[in-house]
Amino acid sequence: MLKAITGMVKTDVHDHYLYKIKMGELESLLDALGYRIVERIIQVREKESVDFVFGKGKIDEIKDRVRKLDPDVFVLYNNITSKQKWNLERALGVEVIDRYDVTLMIFREAASDILSKLQIELASLEKHFPYVKLSASIKYKRMKAGFKGGGEYAYHKQIRAMQKRIKILNDKIEKLSRQKELEILKRIDDGAKIAVLTGYYNAGKTSIFNALTGFNKPVSDKPFTTLSSKYAGIEGEKVYLVDTIGFVIDLDPRLIASFKLNLLDIKYSNKQILVIDISDRDELLKIKLKEDLRILKELGKREESMIIAANKADLVGDSDMRRKEELIVDIAGKDVPLIPVSTVDGRGLRELVRTMMEELELIR
């Protein structure tokens, strides 16, 4: 089994809990990729080091742990620059990646359709292009130009090849994006309403989608089983229900940009069914819900177009449910419909559909 050391520079000295949630999420993603976490290293600093993220003394400590534990990779929660990656890899003698790399690795494993694969390849190329450019320039800057290069350094060819591939991928995705947008707009012009199942990964969106549509989409404990959106007509094709990609804490803006095609469904949706895992611990529930709402607002959606489906209600007792519902109302507001549901015993599913239809003004 592959081994990983994880690390974080924590810049909020008052954060005594959230960073543990973030690190736990990172490590669960690594576990899904087949890595065993052999150590977690945290440093509290006012700000990250420009050159190494960590301070010099901490780098010496990490170097010692790498030498003793012999990990395959050192994984930072912090997003790192090309310069930081270059410096860290030379200082530690091991591959260094960040949480964005890990997310892309998970996506790559989960991707099954052409569109997802194109978007992942583009996101990966754009992420690694600055590092390749830096490392290639360092490696080749003193080399003489080849006779056939006409004065062009060897690394220019590598850089131009990546730039060409990025342009090709952008063009393909842009074309597919226009096609998809036209398909969505045609549905809207034909009078259909669009409701999306959205929210944190592993909250149970696909299970609810299957229960409401009769489909049998794959459901897994692994993160990001759903990368490409799936449409299904329900209630006599009056509404298209869409299963969408899941969210994560600190969702990288580059990921939103790279997967803008998938997020078109949310952009054009009339109603967002925000699926939360009501069985989560209270603090985790609040963190995830706030992150869900933040991302949806960044995508142009507001609470008045949302319904909260508190999934896995079969795992929560009555008194706990009342307490959790109060927490949710404190965050989302009392005007957002909140419906406890379960795909295990079926509770709340009919109410969820009825509320959705009422909110869409398709029934009274």
**How many structural units, i.e. domains?**
3
**What structural category do the secondary elements indicate?**
alpha/beta
Terminal CA distance:
57 Å
Relevant CATH superfamily of the largest domain: P-loop containing nucleotide triphosphate hydrolases
CATH top level label of the largest domain = Alpha Beta
At the fold tier of CATH, the topology name of the largest domain is: Rossmann fold
CATH architecture of the largest domain: 3-Layer(aba) Sandwich
- What is the H/E string? EHEHEHEHHHEHEEHHEHEHEH
Average predicted confidence as pLDDT: 90
Cα-atom Rg, whole angstroms?
Answer: 23 Å
Count, helices: 12
Contiguous runs where pLDDT drops below 50 for at least 5 residues: 145-151
Beta content comes to 15-25%
Q: How helical, in percent, are the residues?
A: 40-55%
Based on DSSP secondary structure assignment, what is the total number of beta strands?
A: 10
The backbone outline, from C-alpha atoms, is globular
Strand order of the largest sheet: 6-7-5-8-9-10
Largest sheet: 6 strands, mixed
